[in-house]
Amino acid sequence: MAIELPPLPFDAKALEPHMSANTLSFHHGKHHAAYVTNYNNLTKDTPYAGKALEDVVKAVAGDPSKIGIFNNGAQVWNHSFFWNCLKPAGGGTPQGQLLSKIEADFGSYGKFVEDFKTAATTQFGSGWAWLVLDGGTLKVTKTANADTPLVHGQTALFTVDVWEHAYYLDYQNRRPDFVSTVLANLANWDFAAKNLDKAPHK
Ligand code: MN3
After folding, report:
1. Which domains does the chain have, with CATH numbers?
2. 165 alpha carbon to ligand 1 midpoint, in Å?
């Protein structure tokens, strides 16, 4: 049984002017869709077909002979997660338990933002910046290409895709402006708070 491209959790124009419908038509409609197609082609008629995506990504991580399945499967997971990290009129300072935990583990929300922007802008080439729960502590991390906290024993709470395809149509080379805009205007902290709430070992 093949996996399917999940629909965006918002209208394609809902994030404008911060993220354009044009960007989403390529990023979701072409890039994310291609990862789904590639994953299905690579797993067809194998023991991975019909298994949960998360389980397959964890099972093939680190196996050079399964790198294609890992790259495409992890990218499907990362993108589906990323869309949920965005919402219209989002961003700004989170509330409640998430804010308390950020203040406890980073010192302040401002320090978290600084650390997250540094991770996002220093990821050389393609990759992702993350807020994760690792051993009960919130951390900012970055991963290259398709790599994902799923395979590092961490619980992902929030991410920003920093592959050029995520921002080039709207921001050209200005990755720092893209990341700042997501944090200020699009971040779905309700989703991050739900991920914290259901995380083990918090
Ligand atoms: Mn992407």
Report:
1. 21-84 (1.10.287.990), 96-197 (3.55.40.20)
2. 6
